[in-house]
Write a structure and sequence with these properties.
The complex is a heterodimer of chains A (458) and B (447). With 458 residues, chain A is an alpha+beta fold. Chain A is built from 17 helices and twelve strands. Chain A folds into two domains: 239 residues, Metalloenzyme, LuxS/M16 peptidase-like (Cytochrome Bc1 Complex, Chain A, domain 1), CATH 3.30.830; 187 residues, Metalloenzyme, LuxS/M16 peptidase-like (Cytochrome Bc1 Complex, Chain A, domain 1). In chain A, the strands form two sheets. In chain A, strands 1-5-6-4-7-3-2 form a seven-stranded mixed β-sheet, with helices on both faces. In chain A, strands 8-12-9-11-10 form a five-stranded mixed β-sheet, sandwiched between helices. Chain B is α+β, with helices and mostly antiparallel strands and 447 residues long. Chain B folds into two domains: 204 residues, Metalloenzyme, LuxS/M16 peptidase-like (Cytochrome Bc1 Complex, Chain A, domain 1, 2-Layer Sandwich), CATH 3.30.830.10; 180 residues, Metalloenzyme, LuxS/M16 peptidase-like (Cytochrome Bc1 Complex, Chain A, domain 1), CATH 3.30.830.10. Chain B has a six-stranded mixed β-sheet with strand order 1-2-6-3-5-4. A five-stranded mixed β-sheet of chain B has the order 7-11-8-10-9, with helices on both faces. Chain B is globular and about 60 Å long. The chains are: A alpha+beta (458), B alpha+beta (447).
């Protein structure tokens, strides 16, 4: 029962969700498909995906709801995540504790997660236990029962989770302040776990209203990965999920981001900081925001600039310049709203954040002027495409990548053709994306410092 | 030479599960473990799987950070960060570039008892990947630039850890449990000891600790036993035959029902607790394993989860675990809780410990635990890398190549009498010590 970090795990498997910039290019596929899934849709609108993996007679069963923290209303931050916790509190058919006890008695593992854009529930079981978990998961899609006696202790659990993940980590606290500064209006400005005072105030009525509004088969995706085919799954999916009445058509009506023109700076000093860190994050195109045609080029660009030991950032700051302990760049376009193109450098002792920032700006200016080279682009593309082969190997990898992609509105083809689309990226596109994304007016620069440090530009 | 022993364990395992739960049969897929020996005398366990063009190699050398010389604590950890930073003719940048261009993953990790590594490669790059592994293991360069760079990264981590609640709690706990044994030291060292490590120390470690007689290997994926015979000699054949001899004394953790408070201005108290445990080869290990699952094991059903989290909302995470190390057995656990209720959390854990020691589990709890532990066993086999790790762990613990066949029967064999007896003999409320890091209200250091 954990919120997913929106920056992702760095796993390329997860980034394998891809694309809107379909070029309509047909012909002999240059790259193999990634997961070879089968799909169908139930009469009530629920999408179903089967990801074959026959290594063991085991399946991972996931239900993804197209609702996350960015769909919460004003004053109710954390409600999507709180509801995810409360989904384990029982229904009439499977009262409190019975769900988890039944999964455990059948040798199953389970958990759930919440992100800004989706909420997911999953169990991994022996194949012949699939029907059992489908029955229970389908049941709690519409039959959750909650009372104050259950909500009260679980609220304390969520507050402890916030203390553990956020309050106990100055870097995580800074991340909240950066998001609040980067997104002027888009709801990604709120933390997934919620602000403490709002978690405390969430009422049972409001939580149930949120549940009734968003949890319905036509707003959900069923993903089953493992020793399974669509032909085997279909009768079960129809039996358990197909009978749930369709809800109203859901649309995500989120506040949109206005044009941004002002560079922002967040300086956070905390007694617990022992390694200062400089960062900058630019508002960037995603698969659904801004110039969506640049998403693939940005993925390649992020790799060239700051992923791995031979990337420009690591080489320049950590190896050659010997000015930093670590340095890198991150980007993922996998979001309903705007994406983040982020840079970070953790300087070595004796190097100030001001010097660091000057050096980053020089490196970026040099990249813009001199350009990213064709060789850098080709190497990055090879690495990214190879990662798709590894992504096939694990039981859960394909289920997570496809579930996340469909939950934000992508199609199965966008995942399967992702290697081809990465292959099609040109050096010119990478350089154009570089120039476009480095817009100071759409950026937040951050400094994480010890309390007694004089190194900051407050 | 290759493929002497082979077994189809999974079919039998399935029979066991199906027999228990009687929900109907299904076709059994099989996993064959082959014992492969090279001409040069390197042995590996192999599971062939040609579904994807991927090979995963997992390996470990016996002897880990507990062997770091006094004053050089952190040596094994530092070596683990440097073996992929240049080998043979390739300097750090050339080596890293090659790994990236071949899409090869190569990682090393030091534990208290082992020095481990893993390699993952696409089939098409197999030879080049095994060659990079050979260079890393047998011709590491330890050039000045990467040595100082990795040292700087370790020192940065050590500084950050001085403000990390969980790390501080664990360090304090191990120091209390093992005041006179290397297990009580910090595996990644201190600023002073990491600064004291020289390139000579690093080279000495590689030359003395990495050898064929303390090595175990698990391989999974798109490679035949014949191909693996060649690859084993290519990657590991040039290692020295014997590691330098070493000896550690078996020890018992110091057990006392003390509470130690480390005052830090943190918003949450990190609580860790431990008592003496069992060694992996103890005849009561499986009874203790099942017992721990009921008390504080994984999932959302244990007594600690129910009492600490579900009923009272005291913590997001609470668990206990058996930690059988090579030279000492531990049972330990952890929880993170708000400062003003830390005392209550400690008391609930102590009460549950005492209740279990006195009453033992119920028949229903035992049955449920066995159903979970046997039924969930196949779920661990979720990726080539994970399976390779399991093959390596079985060898390190000397469980036998038929362990996967036997494992669920060992769990099944635990009777209620066993579980209750082990609850009485193992669980020791008077020897359960706590460390609390934070600003816990109403708790002071004391017995």
């Amino acid at each position: 029962m954990t919120p997913i970090s929106r920056l992702g795990s760095g796993l390329r498997a997860a980034l394998a969700a891809a694309a809107l910039m379909a070029t309509g290019l047909v012909g002999p596929a240059a790259e193999a498909a990634v997961f070879n899934p089968e799909t169908f849709t139930l009469a009530n609108g629920m999408q179903v995906v089967v990801v074959p993996n026959h290594r063991m007679p085991v399946v991972t069963h996931m239900v993804w709801y197209k609702v996350g923290a960015a769909d919460e209303g004003d004053g109710e931050s954390g409600i999507a995540h709180f509801l995810e916790h409360l989904m384990f509190k029982g229904t009439e058919n499977f009262p409190a504790g019975v769900f988890s006890q039944t999964v455990a008695r059948n040798g199953g593992r389970e958990n759930a997660f919440t992100s800004s854009d989706y909420t997911g529930y999953h169990q991994t079981v022996a194949k012949d236990r699939l029907e059992l978990v489908m029955r229970m998961e389908a049941d709690r899609m519409t039959h959750l029962i909650l009372n104050e006696e259950q909500v009260a202790p679980e609220r304390q659990v969520v507050l402890e989770e916030r203390r553990m993940r956020t309050e106990s980590d100055p870097g995580a606290l800074l991340g909240e302040y950066i998001d609040a500064a980067l997104f002027l209006n888009y709801p990604y400005r709120r933390p997934v776990i919620g602000w403490e005072h709002e978690i405390r105030a969430l009422s049972l009525e409001r939580i149930m209203a949120f549940y009734k509004k968003w949890y319905a088969p036509n707003n959900a995706i069923l993903v089953v990965a493992g020793d399974m085919t669509a032909a085997e799954l279909k009768p079960l999916a129809e039996k358990y999920y197909g009978v749930i009445p369709r809800g109203p058509d859901m649309e995500r009506l989120r506040p949109q981001e206005p044009e941004q023109r002002a560079p922002r700076r967040v300086v956070f000093k905390d007694d617990r900081v022992r390694q200062p860190q400089w960062g900058r994050v630019y508002l960037a195109p995603s698969y659904f925001f801004g110039d969506t045609s640049q998403v693939y080029a940005l993925e390649v660009l992020g790799d060239v600039l700051g992923s791995g030991a031979t990337s420009r950032f690591y080489r320049h700051f950590v190896i050659e310049g010997q000015k930093a302990v670590s340095a890198g760049v991150y980007y993922s376009g996998r979001a309903v709203g705007p994406a983040r193109f982020g840079l970070y450098v953790a300087p070595r002792p004796g190097v100030t954040l001001a010097e660091t920032e000057t050096a980053v700006d020089a490196l970026l200016a040099d990249a813009v002027t001199g350009g990213i080279t064709a060789e850098e682009v080709e190497r990055a593309k090879d690495r990214i495409i190879a990662s798709a082969v590894y992504a096939r190997d694990s039981l859960g990898g394909g289920a997570r990548a496809l579930g996340a992609a469909l939950a934000i509105g992508l199609a199965v083809e966008d995942v399967e053709e992702w290697p081809e689309r990465i292959r099609a990226v040109t050096t010119e596109q990478v350089n154009a994306a570089l120039k476009a994304v480095l817009d100071p007016g759409r950026s937040v620069t951050s400094e994480l410092l010890p309390t007694d440090s004089a190194d900051g530009k407050v | 030479m290759a493929g002497a022993i082979s077994m189809r364990w999974f079919g039998r395992l399935l029979l066991l599960i199906v027999g228990l739960l009687a929900l109907g049969p299904r076709p059994a897929s099989a996993i064959d473990i082959q014992r492969v020996s090279s001409a040069g005398g390197v042995e590996a366990w192999l599971i062939e799987d040609h579904t994807n063009p991927i090979i995963a190699v997992n390996f470990a050398f016996r002897g880990g950070s507990a062997l770091d010389p006094a004053g050089k604590e952190g040596l094994a950890d530092m070596v683990s960060g440097l073996l992929d930073e240049g080998g043979g003719p390739l300097d750090s940048m050339a080596f890293q570039r090659k790994l990236e261009d071949l899409a090869v993953t190569l990682r090393f990790e030091a534990g208290r008892d082992t020095f481990g590594g893993r390699l993952a490669t696409l089939t098409e790059n197999r030879d080049a990947a095994f060659d990079l592994l050979r260079l890393a293991l047998t011709e590491p360069r330890f050039d000045a630039e990467p040595v100082e760079r990795i040292r700087g990264q370790i020192l940065s981590n050590l500084r950050s850890q001085t403000e990390d609640p969980d790390t501080l709690a664990r360090q304090a706990l191990f120091a209390e449990l093992f005041p006179a044994h290397p297990y009580g030291r910090r595996p990644d060292g201190t600023e002073e000891t990491v600064n004291a490590i020289t390139a000579e120390d690093l080279r000495g470690f590689a030359a003395r600790r990495l050898a064929r007689d303390n090595l175990v290997i698990g391989v999974v994926g798109d490679i035949s036993s014949g191909e693996l015979v060649q690859a084993l000699d290519q990657a590991f054949g040039k290692l020295p035959e014997r590691a330098a001899s070493w000896r550690l004394e078996a020890t018992a953790p110091r057990a006392a029902n003390t509470v130690t408070v480390v005052k830090k201005a943190f918003p949450q108290s990190a609580i860790v607790f431990a008592q003496r445990g069992l060694m992996r080869d103890d005849p009561d290990y499986y009874a203790a394993y099942v017992l721990n699952h009921i008390l504080g094991g994984g999932g959302f059903t244990s007594r600690l989860y129910t009492e600490v989290r579900d009923k009272r909302g005291l913590a997001y995470s609470v668990y206990s675990a058996l930690v059988p190390m090579d030279f000492a057995g531990l049972m330990l656990g952890a929880a993170g809780t708000r400062n003003d209720r830390a005392a209550e959390t400690v008391k609930v854990i102590q009460d549950e410990w005492r209740r279990m020691a006195t009453e033992g589990p119920t028949a229903e709890e035992l049955e449920d635990a066995k159903l979970y532990l046997t039924g969930s066993f196949p779920l661990q086999f979720s990726s080539s890398d994970r399976i390779g790790g399991i093959l390596t762990a079985i060898q390190l613990d000397d469980l036998g190549i038929d362990y996967l066949d036997k494992r669920n029967a060992l769990i099944e064999a635990v009777t209620l009498e066993d579980a209750r007896r082990v609850a009485r003999t193992l669980l020791d409320p008077a020897g359960l010590g706590f460390v609390v890091v934070g600003q816990p209200a109403g708790i002071e250091t004391g017995g």
